[in-house]
Amino acid sequence: MPPMRTTDDWMNDWRIDMNSMNPKLQDLVEEVMPQEPTYTVIAGRSGIGKTVLALNLAFSLATGSPFYSLKVKQTTVGYLAFEGTKGKMFERLEKVAKNYPPVGNNLRFEIRKPFHLLEKKNEQELLDLASGCQVLFVDPVKYLVGGNYLKPEVVNNFIIKWMDLMDKGKFSSVLCLQVRKENPNSLWEPGDLWEVKGAGDYVESATSVLLLERERQGHNPGGQGFAPVSMEKVVLHFAKHRDSIGDMTPIKLELNRGKLRFDIR
Fold it and tell me: What does pTM read for this prediction?
């Protein structure tokens, strides 16, 4: 292996590369998803609505529709799902599609049984599925990882392989990640994601991380005590975006079951 190059050598090469980009690459989602092979994580506890958020983000990208006021560049999207029956997925897609302009050929969808990416024979299958897509959604990622998907050694091996495949296939990705706490009543805060073994490894290598969590329980407006907990009132935290941490304002959302989307409250 040759010795490391000087900083000046790297800067000169990168400057040439950047000057050759014409036009300059535009974010696919403003401040969140760059137009280059990187990955975004949608994290949250089981049942919080990660798939609902992911499907709406996929339709936003496929149609160029804003994502909660963030500008979106229209692109070709693939959605690889590992959970749900065909009938259930059809119902979900039918509801979500009504919220957006026609997607045409910009959104491809596939339901598969789990296959483990760390088995070499499955690398080409993944590249074939991603072919022609600029963004690939994986929902949820645990079925692609296999084994203990939150064990640091397993996660790190997966991420190395995943980033290599994104480079080979020239696609970005969105990974839906289920995270859990020992105490299910304890709420996730954005900073917690860095502290949990396994989850922190996904976060470290991600360009952006969106965290869905229940709204913190407030006092009962009609009297004493606390208001009931609602899984339909959530907060979307931009725990990490474009490799920066914490300065995008969280968005309070409420699940609209009829339209299968989260509306801003």
Answer: 0.88
